[in-house]
Protein: Bacteriohemerythrin
Amino acid sequence: MKRFLTWRDDWYLGIDEIDQQHLHLVELINQVADSVMTQNSESSNDGGAMRLVLQLQEETRQHFRDEEAFMRNHEYPQVSSHHREHALLQAELSDLIREIEEGKRRLDIETLTSLKYWLIDHVIESDMDIARYMNSR
Ligand SMILES: [Fe+2]
Structure:
């Protein structure tokens, strides 16, 4: 079965600790997708899928913490702007979760697609700057 979000090799930063966490977040989004696709259409807020979204929120929080610690340890100059971006991403995810909980949004393919781009556009692509910085040293 084709995965909802397929990892691409050019997303590797070459920083093992961060890469492993990114792979794990991609896997979690795939688990959310699997859960959403297999749930029956009447139950809009399937507990299993929602539990995985909350897990994604928790693990993202930890990932951002670890990534910021890594950046500080390596004296990455843009750590404060990257931190602001992380805060914004967490706020976006919290908003999305609140909308689902309040019944304003369904955990459906459209929401899954938002989650997918939330992860790859920001979380992975902007982290490429960290890789570039590490390579330039
Ligand atoms: Fe990251």
In short: The chain has a mean pLDDT of 92. Residues 18, 22, 63, 67, 123, 127 surround fe (ii) ion (CB under 6 Å). The first helix runs from residue 16 to 38. The chain has one domain: 9-136.
